[in-house]
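Appendix B. Raw example, untouched.
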Amino acid sequence: MKSKIINLVLGALVTLIIFALLSGCSSKTSPNIQTDIQFSADPIANNILMSLNNNDYAGFSKDFDQTMKNTLNQTAFDKFYSQMKTEVGDYQSDVFVSAATQNGAVTIQYIARYSKELAGVMMVLVLQMNKGTYEVQGLNFDSPNLRGQPIDVNKVRAYADSETENILTSLNNNDYTGFSIDLDQVMKNAMPQTGFDKLYKQMQSTVGNYQSKEFGSVLMQNNILTVKYHTGYSLEPGGVWVTISFDSDQKVAGLYFNSPKLQ
């Protein structure tokens, strides 16, 4: 990453495992609590993104705790603003991804759309309650351009979209042969027929039938491309986030499902 300013994470962040196979969904945040957290976090996130885009430090830092204000002062903000404009362009929109709690801190993920970054920008907020109000004690922006590792999104999606569609459709149809055709050998070993049967039953009973998908973001780490899709399921009003990883041979090397009901 080009600048430490991009990675302003203070305190403990919840590690989000996106290269691990899902054999059972778990989280420390219940659906009702996640909804309440999102209700409080969305205005904070939107204010940060809008204020950063408008070069407004007072608005940007309004919800920061004192440590964050000391760390990300006006001088640091000016550098951060300049880098964001250069690398990813203008802020356009954002979508909530997930929330999790650990040791009293709440970690929330958003994907933000920017004019120069087709891969999406992942924003992570760490919030802590103080006297009845959430304060920002951690903030992180991440994208291929911000890492100095641009990704040809259209090239990735040329195979990722179709392989993901096959994975989701085959799972929905209880078709293990179709589901496993694009898995790498490690994934095939980790997800035999018995594991697939368990996953199929859990998805059907919890979130229902697969209906649609929409591209979210893509990042690369250690030659593994990880793509997020926001998918529609019949029994999950908020949708299901699917994180799927591909190795250098364009084989599926990881799969993770996340939604309020699956948590």
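End of appendix B.
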